[in-house]
Amino acid sequence: MSDLENLNQLSKEDATPEVLLKTKEQIEKDLGLCGFQYAEVDQPTALPELVPELSEKIEFLKNSGSSDLMKIVYRVDLTEKQYKKVGLMPGLWHENLAKAIVLRAFQKVIIRKKFSN
Asked: 25-64 pLDDT, tens per residue?
């Protein structure tokens, strides 16, 4: 979770166009329960591009009082410790949670890629 501030650096060092696209698809899959699909990002070129739309959706879900938000946190597989850390970070909560979700989806894709070879 300490990598949240380093999304740009992670993206430059580790993310290929294929990994970025799979990360986007993983986020859409994990958030499928609330019908989230990226409208503005077709082929991401960096991880931070995936944050704004996701952040807006998270803010909407939080403000609407939807129970889907916690279901998403569990589906994305954020630990309780990671979730609590998001709340303690400076900045907007919904943006920090979006960053954590993007990072977790990226990790899932990297792990899957590493073990499928």
From this structure: 999 999 988 889 999 999 999 999 999 999 999 999 999 9
The total number of residues written for the chain in this structure? 117
Question: Are 24 and 116 spatial neighbours (Cβ–Cβ below 8 Å)?
Answer: no
| Residue 3 one-letter amino acid | D
| pLDDT at residue 13, rounded to an integer | 57
Indicate the domain borders of the chain. Answer: 2-116
Q: Please compute, for residue 76, the number of CA atoms within 13 A of its CA located in the half-sphere on the CB side.
A: 30
Q: Buried b vs exposed e over 9-34: b needs ≥16 C-beta within 10 Å?
A: ebbeeebeeebbbbbbebbeebbeeb
